[in-house]
Amino acid sequence: VVERLVVVGADAAGMSAAHQALRTAAARGRELEVLALERSGHTSYSACGIPYWVAGDVPSGDALVARTADQHRAAGIDLRLHTVVEAIDPAAGTVDLRDLSGGRTGGTGGTERVGYDHLLLATGAHPVEPAWARTADGEPVPGVHAVRSLDDGAVWLDRLTSTDRPPRTGVVVGGGYIGLEMAEAFLRRGLEVTLVTRGEVMGSLDPDLGARVREQLVAAGVTVVTGAEIDDLELDDGHSCCLAAGGRRFDADVVALGLGARPETELAAAAGLPLGDSGGLLPDDRQQLTAGPGDDWAGSIWAAGDCCESYTRLDGGRRGGIRVFVPLGTHANKQGRVAGENLAGGDARFGGVLGTAVTRFSGGGVTVEIGRTGPTSAQAAAAGYDVVSLVTESTTASGYMPEASPIAVKVLADRGTRRLLGVQLVGGPGTAKRVDLAAVAIWTSQTVDEVAGMDLAYAPPFSPVWDPVQIACRRLADRW
Amino acid sequence: VVERLVVVGADAAGMSAAHQALRTAAARGRELEVLALERSGHTSYSACGIPYWVAGDVPSGDALVARTADQHRAAGIDLRLHTVVEAIDPAAGTVDLRDLSGGRTGGTGGTERVGYDHLLLATGAHPVEPAWARTADGEPVPGVHAVRSLDDGAVWLDRLTSTDRPPRTGVVVGGGYIGLEMAEAFLRRGLEVTLVTRGEVMGSLDPDLGARVREQLVAAGVTVVTGAEIDDLELDDGHSCCLAAGGRRFDADVVALGLGARPETELAAAAGLPLGDSGGLLPDDRQQLTAGPGDDWAGSIWAAGDCCESYTRLDGGRRGGIRVFVPLGTHANKQGRVAGENLAGGDARFGGVLGTAVTRFSGGGVTVEIGRTGPTSAQAAAAGYDVVSLVTESTTASGYMPEASPIAVKVLADRGTRRLLGVQLVGGPGTAKRVDLAAVAIWTSQTVDEVAGMDLAYAPPFSPVWDPVQIACRRLADRW
Predict the structure, then answer these.
(1) Residue A473 annotated as catalytic
(2) Gyration radius of chain A's alpha carbons
(3) A114 forms bridges with which residues in the sheet?
């Protein structure tokens, strides 16, 4: 018996699942055919790399493609690009697809109904787009654009390197990862940059750490406007616009949207699949969707990546149950592997998310690195923890070395259990990836006392004798 | 009742203990006076920083001093420099000391017998010195020198920057951390450099990873001679010498000794305190020495730092019992704190050593970073593990980024339990400190499967989507 897996969306989650399913099926002697359907013309690319491509660090969009369509096909996957899934019938186990390729990519043309034994939804996420980003006719405002797909990247590159009316002023809307990275790209392209954000810069940090990032952006020459939302946009001459936010006005030749993403689950919703508060699908830790009492599709539908909510891993997963929407390639890859293994008969589990993330802003003579893992103080309090925390200043290398730059470490712990809950880092080169040691410690439910005693690496070019994260844990442990 | 703590050796371990003892005593309402005795004129300096001072990265020896004598005294410690302890009488609870300062440092001059309630031995380690490093008269051969104390550093700086007969050729004896760092310093000072080492370069790595380091040294222009020991030295003219190793001869204007260290425990041995195979003291995990049945000094003697052996932490400390000599500032600081807390009535434990270490070689256009934690393959096999291992090649950043440089990751696991045992890293900038995440995972007894699922940080300037250490764990986990 040959089973058929249909994968909707051929990026990180979908293609990780497809390859893992084939490996697991082969190892178990099961016959599996895989049909992967992708709306765009691209597969398996690094969305996170797009700002660096726009900034000029990456030579081409092709460089961001981890595996090409041909490489996927060589592994035995029937991959169809420019192919849209128009409907899913969970009860019948079919998808309706439409080939938009005009035959270019080996599609069959027109529409087709395909049956499946296993369906993997990996439809990703949409960038959040405010109403003012479109004209009254529903067309995108010229010069206003998100940064999500390779096509977006090409649009940005084209606009920023245009010799006809080259842009001089850029506004970045949103102070998160994409916002910082696009501010960097704009600076690198010689623009005057304004960043407008609803709260403090880097809302995934506690505000006191976010303020440190903001100070660095300002030092780099970025005009930072916090606590403001764009409430109106006026087009000037078809090439520039004027944004209004809380009574202030900002001229902009280009506007980058960095307002985050929302799950792309319209197809799933139309098929009657349950969605969470964020609009994301709700797979279990095997990445399988749970059918309701009246549903007859139990076990056949899987979901992975940015179209899903994930479980947080507070207290080593034991509290469990808190669903969050964290669209990120690392989770997409892991969830895809888990789904692929399970649907082919294996038994893998996705371990949950800590919200570990890093980024960098480098421009205007400033380099600031940012790392964070675990809940913020507000998130931890909302989850019922009695949070104790502390910010420590140290250096990334021994203070006497030329490599030494300042690093601020915020550590959060639970008063009752003394567990490390979260770590946030803001500092110079060498700061960001230190968050991984904290992520492993939180993943394994360590106390701050235990972290303070661990055998971490020291040599003068890399660390003070006590690593800054360890110093922070030790000082916090001494507090109570 | 005022208790007296006598600390022998005023570097990392001794002074960490002294300060912690005062803090703990104050918190517990105990009265403690601390007398700290130091043979040299320096306190609390970074021995690890000396090669960078010699290379010209650090402006002065003073910059390597973490806390000066005056700072220690301001905290209430009676610190006497240039003061040698000549004998310990454990039964009587006294030390005999001799003031060599001639009154310069506030010493009392001559000899003195001082009683103690608590004695902390923190006498450190000697550099290993081969017989050929001294003349027939027992004098040091000119130009041949170790790299351990601030005085050594001053000698090196003087010799390398001398305008009278500036050295042109340097031989480094030993291929470990100090050897690599002195090879870098010699290159930076314009010397032709030969490095001679008994085994492979970086004997703390598996030989296949050590060979990768060697290739980088050779690419940087260092002549590397492996599998050779210096068996003779001839003085040329009082300024240069010729070393012989297995039939080959090497001219050298200067020779750096990087042959490791041995515990400085002559004083303890003379007092009848038990020593391990390495010659190191044998404190328990509270850093307290265990008295034998006939001894009446039980409980009064403590030891910390490079004069001690430590316990390894294999299998989360549960196998325990394996004593090792790992002289390193990180352990000295932690052990000092543990000893200080306990002798003042607290209850702290030293958690053991994984052998976590990092270093860098940067010169001749090459930068190679090295990280390691846990046992090598040979050490793990000797400890009874059935070792499975794998080397994976990846990049330090996403492959398309300008920051990306190669990184090789060797992962060792135990076949039966699937536990991660050790990780070794050799690669470009961004490699070394990744070892910390592995150190936390080994410290907490994680399997390679668990590490493969953890939520580690990703952004294009810092990592591929899967961190290289995680890739290696995943691939190894897929092996069996």
Answers:
(1) no
(2) 24
(3) A95
Q: Do A459 and B58 touch (CB under 8 A)?
A: no
pLDDT above 80 (res B338) = yes
Q: Determine which of B436, B437, B469 to mutate to test the interface with A (most A C-beta atoms within 10 Å).
A: B436
pLDDT of A357 strictly over 70: yes
- pLDDT tens digits, A463-480: 999 999 999 999 999 999
pLDDT level of residue A307 (50, 70, 90 thresholds): very high
Nearest-Cα distance to chain B for A95, in Å, is 31
**What is the structure's pLDDT at B103?**
58
CB contact under 8 A, A401 and B57: yes
Min Cα–Cα distance to chain B from A85, Å:
28
Name the pLDDT band for B293 (thresholds 50, 70, 90): confident
Residue A112's contacts (CB-CB under 8 Å, 6 or more residues apart) are: A96, A97, A98, A99
- Phi-psi category of B279—alpha, beta or left, where left has phi over 0 and alpha has psi -120 to 50? left
Instruction: Show which of residues 340-379 on chain B sit within 8 Å of chain A, judged by CB atoms.
Output: 349-360, 362, 371, 373
Note whether B390 and B283 are within 8 A (CB).
no
Report the predicted TM-score, pTM, of the whole model to 2 decimal places.
0.96
> Any bridge partners for residue B407, and if so which?
B394, B427
Q: Pick B455's closest partner by Cβ from A359, A430, A443.
A: A443
Nearest Cα to A359, choosing from A49, A123, A58?
Answer: A49
Q: Enumerate the residues of chain A whose CB falls inside 8 A of the CB of residue B446.
A: 440, 444
Three-state secondary structure string covering chain B:
CEEEEEEECCCHHHHHHHHHHHHHHHHHCCEEEEEEECCCCCCCECHHHHHHHHHCCCCCHHHHECCCHHHHHHCCEEEECCEEEEEEECCCCEEEEEECCCCCCCCCCEEEEEECCEEEECCCEEECCCHHHECCCCCECCCEEECCCHHHHHHHHHHHCCCCCCCCEEEEECCCHHHHHHHHHHHHCCCEEEEEECCCCCCCCCHHHHHHHHHHHHHCCCEEEECCCCCEEEECCCCCEEEEECCEEEEECEEEECCCEEECCHHHHHCCCCECCCCCECCCCCCECCCCCCCCCCCCEEECCCCECEEECHHHHCCCCCEECCCCHHHHHHHHHHHHHHHCCCCCCCCCECCCEEEEEEECCEEEEEEEECCCHHHHHHCCCCEEEEEEEEECCCCCCCCCCEEEEEEEEECCCCEEEEEEEEECCCCHHHHHHHHHHHHCCCEHHHHHHCCCCCCCCCCCCCCHHHHHHHHHHCCC
What residues pair up with B51 in beta bridges, in sequence order? none
Are the C-beta atoms of A37 and A5 separated by less than 8 Å?
no
CA B11 and chain centroid, separation: 13
Q: What per-residue confidence (pLDDT) applies to B356?
A: 98
- Tell the residue number behind the tokens 């994968």, with chain if given: A7
**Section B320-325 average pLDDT:** 79
Q: What residues 126-155 of chain A have any CB closer than 8 A to a CB of chain B?
A: none
A328 at B interface, C-beta within 8 A: yes
Q: Which amino acid, residue B410?
A: K
- Beta strand B77-80 pairing with B31-37: parallel
- Chain B CB contacts of A394 under 8 Å are none
Which residues from chain B sit within 8 angstroms of residue A436, using beta carbons? 434, 436-437, 456-457, 467
**Residues 63-82 of chain B whose Cβ lies under 8 A from any Cβ of chain A:** 63-64, 66
A430 to chain B: which residues are within 8 Å by CB? 433
